[in-house]
Amino acid sequence: MPPSIDRRKFLLVSALAGVTAACGSDPTRRPSAASAVPLSRTDSPAALPLHDDVPMIANGLSPESGGTLKLLNYAEYISPDVVKKFGKEHGVEVEITTFTTMDEAIAKLRTAGTSFDVWFPTPDVIAKAAVGKLVQPLNKTYLGNLGNAWPQLQNPFYDEGSRYTVPYNAYTTGIGYRADKVKEVTGYDLLWNPAYNGKAYLIDDAREALALAMLKNGSIEINTEEPGKITKAGAWLTELVDLMNIKVGVTAYQYIPEGQATVHHCWSGDMVNAQSYLPKGVEADVLGYWYPDDNTGVVGTDAMAVPRGATKPVLAHLLINHLLDNAVAQENFSYTGYQPALTAITPEKMVTDEFVTEQLKSTIVTPEVYARSQQIFQISPAAEALWNDSWAQFKAGQ
Amino acid sequence: MRRRTGFWAALAAPGTLWIVALFAVPFYAVAAVAFGYTDPVFNSPVPEWDPRYWDLTAFGEILDRSLTGDLRPVFLRTFLYVLLALAVCLLVGYPVAYYLARHAGRRRGLLLALILAPWWVNYITRMLAWLNLLQDDGYVNDLLLLTRLVDEPVRWLSGNPVTVVLALVYGYIPFFIVPLFSALDRIDERLLEAARDLGCSGRRAFWHVTLPLSRPGLMTAGAITALPMFGDYYTNSLVSGSPTTTMIANQIEFYLLGGTRKELGASLVLLLSALLMVLMAYYLVSSRRAEEAGA
């Protein structure tokens, strides 16, 4: 037989060629492990670094027109009507790219060749975005409506002087429940009450769920980096596996009105939205939301920023300012269910305007609630790994 | 002569390209993440493409936890669920495939189409429909209560392992029936006639002729069904969501979609792949043996 390359050999050789080609790319070396990102706290605010090569836009520019204004946001986290109207007014199309986690958002911002004009980050990633030069400093001369925001958030701890961000929405983490099935609202103990076995849910998030276990057991150190305390919280959560046949999820807005969950650890916005998920014949007064009136609750906010690579930075500033307008913000709230962090939005007003039922008044966050509550902060990567490990063990059914 | 061989070898090029682009490169990328490091600013994984710098710590941790730690019961549970689901597929799927191949006559086309009919509806819609049916006060429980099969509603959706196994069966059983059907269909009817002529009862003819000859089909059906079951996390999250039914793919999803320890998720992918490759190797060896025995 003549020496020839048979099919099998061809397959082998080409497969190897593929692997060597993949190996051949420029080898990147391990950088030093120390984190370069400041960890801001309410009692030790962080002024985020400015960079010479990332300038802010000049004063008094006229907005860009034509083309597409690109937003990077969670799904269904901004009213399509609000952005459509804004786009029409300025002669641009508006395109929303969505993400499900902040990691994913950052990956999208870091992808070469992509550009976004407005991004809606959470405080825990703002510092790394600023250090990593993913966002540009804001020019406050375009942001006259910033004065409508809660006083604490006009100069927030996570971005002192609002260099890179302005506030967007605020929410609390509490317990949503079926008022027709829960006899006594016992706070966090609702989730440890075997009467609701098989009908109890935790938020599917390491930090939120472990923080719940800590708060229920009287500890407000929900940003601790001590391994012992984190493991302990994991053990407290594990009690729920046998006691409650606990489940995890992030669809309280659906499971509670539909009756699949009786008690659900959830965000305040979930319960606002639950009002639109009621099956036929179920009244809105079956929906309840509990949030502690002491300091053992978790509050969260998110923000708006302009990515460094924005192609319409002036228009991006205008949209941000537009969303800080009281009337626009309220219209946006009616779509997202998550309230803007503006002084004009009060629990009383939201009940009068029929945004929420009297029973769900507790879903509306005020600057006072924000001030007394705990927040989930960015922690060191090593500690984050510990939190994740505890959560992973819980999820493995341990 | 030589040119012709080159020509035939070149016919393998599209397939090779396919495998390199959609298997070898992604697989290598997973390995690069598993053995890579973490970016200090973004705390996100950075793949290490050069094997000389691979860091095996994460993989070692996963291996350790799978052998003795928290992942061990998850692996065992995964194998148990898939095995049970396969057993149910066999019990339900074999008679169906057998009927289609032997007795369906002219209606077999229609019946095959009906078996695949659920596939005309989008997966998520089908599963959400089941979620409604299986509620504590849903139609399934109504029926069970009405027929006095149970005294109180079955808690199908409260982290019930039975639901998870049945959902897996429901999701993948057509993959089991179709290859098995084509194997049964290929069995030469004259062999069965010969068996009957030689005095076999119908049952013995099935036992000694049909079943052994359908073994390769069974192996294929089992492999095609089991592989996606091992990787399925969504069915489980939908119908249970409880830590007591967590399967290995749920932990992979957990590490890869959330949190910052993607290298652990990637390591888990490698470990699961290695286990599945062992199963595939067994399948290849035994189906080859069956072919040789058949020839």
CATH architecture assignment name of the largest domain in chain A: 3-Layer(aba) Sandwich
Order of helices and strands of chain A: HEHEHEHEHEEHHEHEHEEHHEHHH
Average pLDDT across residues of chain B?
90
Can you identify the CATH class of one domain in chain B?
Answer: Mainly Alpha
| Rg of chain B, Cα atoms, Å | 24 Å
Structural class of chain A: alpha/beta
Helix content of chain A: 25-40%
CATH architecture of one domain in chain B, by name, is: Orthogonal Bundle
Shape of chain B: globular
Low-confidence segments of chain A, ≥5 residues, pLDDT <50?
A: 1-34
What is the percent of helical residues of chain B? over 70%
Overview of the structural elements:
Chain A has helices at 7-23, 80-90, 102-110, 123-131, 151-154, 206-216, 227-244, 252-258, 268-274, 313-323, 326-336, 347-352, 367-372, 381-395, and strands at 68-74, 93-99, 118-119, 135-136, 165-178, 200-203, 247-249, 263-267, 287-290, 298-307, 339-340. With 398 residues, chain A is α/β, with parallel strands linked by helices. In chain A, strands 4, 5, 6, 7, 8, 9, 10 and 11 form an 8-stranded mixed sheet that branches. In chain A, helix 8 (252-258) packs across helix 9. Chain A is globular, with a radius of gyration of 24 Å. Chain B has a domain at 70-258: MetI-like fold, CATH 1.10.3720.10. Chain B has a two-stranded antiparallel sheet with strand order 1-2. In chain B, strand 1 and strand 2 form a beta hairpin. In chain B, helix 2 runs antiparallel to helix 14, helix 4 (71-102) packs parallel to helix 8 and helix 11 (215-231) packs antiparallel against helix 14. Chains A and B meet through helix 1, helix 3, strand 7 and helix 14 of A and helix 1, helix 2, strand 1, helix 4 and helix 13 of B.
